[in-house]
């Protein structure tokens, strides 16, 4: 016997612009929105890393048919970083286990950033 209360799914068409918080996967955000709205059909238009925050378009119903156009659209990203620190996990969630002085020029930063511009 299913112990969960079954909710009646409803036909819902449109796009929800969801501001995804850090710590939640894109799929978890999608499933939560789908549940809260009681939508019969839903899909997101790309994956944000669980540590990333940002806009996650969620398509419901008929809007899922044009989700690919949103996937192929231009996107922009903003990053914050700390140089000279190593963490226990290799990401922002770990504890800093080592630090080092770093000397980096603006030209070096611009050269590194250029690798992440354009078609990736």
From TrEMBL:
GO terms for molecular function: RNA binding; tRNA pseudouridine(55) synthase activity. GO terms for biological process: mRNA pseudouridine synthesis; tRNA modification. It is an enzyme of class 5 (isomerase). It comes from Snodgrassella alvi SCGC AB-598-J21. Belongs to the pseudouridine synthase TruB family. Type 1 subfamily. Keywords: Isomerase, tRNA processing. InterPro entries: PsdUridine_synth_cat_dom_sf (IPR020103), PsdUridine_synth_N (IPR002501), tRNA_psdUridine_synth_TruB (IPR014780). Pfam families: TruB_N. Its EC number is 5.4.99.25. This is tRNA pseudouridine(55) synthase. It catalyses: uridine(55) in tRNA = pseudouridine(55) in tRNA. Residues 36-120 form the Pseudouridine synthase II N-terminal domain.
